Amino acid sequence: MTEIVIRPARTADVQAIHGLLAPLVDRRILLGKELVSLFEAVQEFVVAEHDGAVIGCGALHVIWRDIGEVRTLLVREDRLHEGIGGRIVEVLEARAIELGLSRLFCLTFEVSFFTRHGFTPIGEQIVDPDVYAQLLRSPDAGVAEFLDLAHVKPNTLGNTRMIKLL
After folding, report:
1. How many Å apart are CA 86 and CA 159, to the nearest integer?
2. In the chain, which ranges are continuous DSSP H helix?
3. Residues in domain N-acetyltransferase (predicted)?
4. Which of 28, 61, 70, 122 has the smallest count of CB within 10 Å of its CB?
């Protein structure tokens, strides 16, 4: 049996990432992403691969000088509870540190998973007003979620905003 490898995603992985997302979008657990958006962000992704098949993925998106977001973290349903998600988070954390980030944000229903990996719930604004003003200019929906802006609240109901210090 071959081992599971966590590696940077390639454009050839985008269809598989999109396929992993589909059931979670259907169940309204994650927001859908267009293929073009996944291709545009492929450099942010890592994938978990086993026997040539993508069985999990996650992305690291830089929000600001010291803050990144763990996005689109998922593992194929039949491979849950094998530690794959945790391994993906570890790789994304290492990438964040290499980039000079000191905090990681996530918006999740999986509070216990992220708590086990050192994240804690947050509520209030966690950036200073000058940074907040700059972030307001971002067209990225994830940044709006980070800022807890009213126009994204219908899409984030029930999610918990969490942060981890690196």
Report:
1. 19
2. 14-26, 35-40, 84-99, 111-116, 129-135, 141-147, 153-156
3. 4-141
4. 28
Higher pLDDT, 147 or 122: 122
Q: How many whole angstroms separate alpha carbon 106 and alpha carbon 163?
A: 6
Q: Pick left, alpha or beta for residue 97 (phi over 0 → left; psi -120 to 50 → alpha; otherwise beta).
A: alpha
| Residues recorded for the chain | 166
Residue 125: predicted pLDDT:
66
From residue 86, alpha-carbon distances to 48, 58, 112, 145 in Å are 11, 10, 12, 23
Cα–Cα distance, 94 to 28 (Å, whole number): 30
Q: How far apart are CA 91 and CA 48, in angstroms?
A: 10
CA 66: distance to chain centroid? Answer: 16
Q: Per residue in 90-100, pLDDT tens?
A: 999 999 999 99
| Predicted confidence (pLDDT) at residue 26 exceeds the cutoff of 90 | no
